[in-house]
Design a protein that fits this description.
It holds the Pfam family NUDIX. Belongs to the Nudix hydrolase family. This is NUDIX domain-containing protein. 15% of the residues lie in helices and 34% in strands. By secondary structure, the protein is α+β, with helices and mostly antiparallel strands. It has a single domain, classed as Nucleoside Triphosphate Pyrophosphohydrolase (Alpha-Beta Complex). The strands form two sheets. The protein has a five-stranded mixed beta sheet, with helices on both faces. Strands 3-2-7 form a three-stranded antiparallel beta sheet. Strand 5 and strand 6 form a beta hairpin. It is globular, with a radius of gyration of 15 Å.
């Protein structure tokens, strides 16, 4: 199996992942500065591949804990599925949102080969460039048009979801 830029498997093997919008009580969202070898540096939501037997919500909590050391998420919930229709293979990412369940939870760089820092940002002032899947998830979250090559499939979301 050969991995191309952006985590897409070049041989066409489907990849199913999650991207997690972690919301702090003040509405700020957690982003990591992705510095993965072979990729252009970008800003990225915590996330990664779904492992066999995992739900999207379980994968989201695991990925956030692995990448940031934050294990305090309240009620992770899927808000959309995005598909990279321009990828050489099948790349599907579930967007999951969750609030911090502990006001004092702060991220750490737990995977220094992939990220060099984590920051809290207002959803109205996102840094650039965004990792492609993260850009698609933010567009879905905000009800905006998807970036070229991406399609979003919003899920039924309760009215309590902040936007």
């Amino acid at each position: 199996m050969r991995i191309a830029e952006g985590g897409v498997v070049a041989d066409g093997t489907p990849i199913v992942g999650v991207g997690v919008l972690v919301l702090r009580s003040d509405g700020a969202i957690l982003l990591g500065h992705r510095i993965k070898k072979g990729e252009t540096p970008s800003w990225c939501l915590p996330g990664g591949r779904v492992e066999p037997g995992e739900t999207f919500e379980v994968a989201a909590a695991r990925e956030v804990a692995e990448e940031t050391g934050i294990g305090a998420l309240a009620d992770p919930e899927v808000f959309t599925i995005v598909v990279d229709t321009g990828a050489p293979g099948v790349l599907v990412t579930a967007g999951v949102w969750a609030r911090l369940s502990s006001a004092c939870a702060e991220p750490v760089v737990a995977e220094p080969d992939n990220f060099d820092r984590w920051i809290w940002v207002s959803p109205n002032s996102l840094p650039t460039p965004l990792f492609p899947a993260s850009a698609a998830l933010f567009a879905a979250w905000c009800g905006r048009r998807q970036p070229d090559g991406w399609t979003a499939y919003p899920t039924a979301v309760p009215n309590s979801v902040p936007r």
